[in-house]
Design a protein that fits this description.
alpha+beta; four-stranded mixed sheet; Deoxyribonuclease I, Chain A; globular
């Protein structure tokens, strides 16, 4: 699952991390990439949202702070039911050239799955087209393993230039419907791509009543099988 949770602030303006946890729990994913996650911020109750969601869901978690505020941090997080072997934050190009830019990162989490390891890359790309293009090129080359899943809020549609740049190195999991804004979704901004010996199913956009209220994005869920590596060399 990939899910921009907007620090738990729903379309009704209330911050309620419990709703986010319920949306995730209903699909019980093995791994979740989260964007717009708070750590210690007053606006979200001064809690570690990554730790709180991990506790509620019974998952292991890693957090990558992207923006530092006076009252805490704001960033991306990855949660997993499968064992986490390692994690690394990678800072992406751009993000500091304009007054309204935000620093952007990717969080690479190496997980053990089905007798192998794969790299799960979580990212949230820029709102600015030129920065987004440079960041897409950067994330397309991340990960040391042949098997890799890239998921997050790309802030662009499948027909955009940054997305086409990603498709030069990665395969797309088809998302049949848009994911933003959650109440009346018109744009597909949240995506899952992959490479390696993985077999992917089409992704589902979770659009039930609770998901439409819990954040301004709808979560996207994709199913992967291990695929066939063929006989040993």
């Amino acid at each position: 699952m990939t899910y921009n949770i907007r620090h738990g602030r729903g379309v009704d303006g209330h911050v309620d991390l419990g709703r986010i946890a319920e949306v995730i729990l209903a699909r019980a994913p093995d791994v979740v990439t989260l964007q717009e996650v708070d750590y210690g911020r007053v606006r979200s109750g001064e809690i570690d949202q990554t730790d709180e969601l991990a506790r509620r869901l019974g998952m292991e978690a890693r957090f990558a702070p992207c923006i530092e505020h006076d009252d805490g941090h704001y960033g991306i997080a990855t949660l997993a039911r499968v064992p986490i072997a390692a994690s690394q934050q990678v800072f992406l190009p751009g993000g500091r050239k304009r007054r309204l830019s935000e620093p952007r990162s990717a969080l690479i989490t190496r997980v053990a799955w089905d007798g192998r390891e794969l790299d799960l890359v979580n990212t949230h790309l820029s709102l600015w087209p030129d920065e987004r293009s440079a960041q897409a090129l950067a994330v397309a080359g991340l990960g040391a393993h042949d098997d890799l899943v890239l998921a997050g809020d790309f802030n662009c549609t499948p027909w955009s230039a940054p997305f086409r740049a990603l498709l030069a190195r990665l395969r797309r999991v088809h998302v049949a419907r848009p994911s933003w804004p959650s109440r009346w979704p018109v744009l597909a901004l949240d995506h899952v791509l992959y490479r390696g010996e993985l077999a992917a199913s089409d992704a589902e956009v979770v659009a039930d009543r609770l998901a439409r209220r819990a954040s301004d994005h709808l979560p996207v869920v994709a199913t992967f099988n291990a695929g066939d590596r063929g006989p040993p060399a």
